[in-house]
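Risk register update: the risk of archive-format incompatibility is retired. Evidence:
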Amino acid sequence: MQRCGEDEEEEEEEEEEEEDGGPESALLKSPFQLTAEDVYDISSVVGRDLLQLSAGPEVPAAAARLQFSMVRVLEMLEALVSEGSVAEEQLRMERDGLRAELDALRGRGAAGSAPQVRGAARGFRAALRFWAALRCEGGWERRARNSD
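Archived output:
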């Protein structure tokens, strides 16, 4: 015999599964919105289908579900790998652009424009101090609120 609290907990779990759409709903999400719980749900679905393949009269239906699950998991992995590759390439291009800009600035500095470089460095340091002061004093938030 179950206690009243256990019945309530089971009902809450069933309601959560119904609201979430069950573990199968994780397969319908975008790979970039998956959580750790979704990964566990996907493994649960795949594991359940594998068990049904090994024992039971519903082998064709289980095989079809497993095939769908595996194809979807592979699509998710492909999307994640592709997104990572694109981000890595963008970072590499940005780094190369910054290096070229730095080399150009160094070239101009070596060509006799040392006073200009020192003046720009002083201005840059002043801007950094200004932003640091705003951040430390909470001035950033105050100025944003006052400008509205």
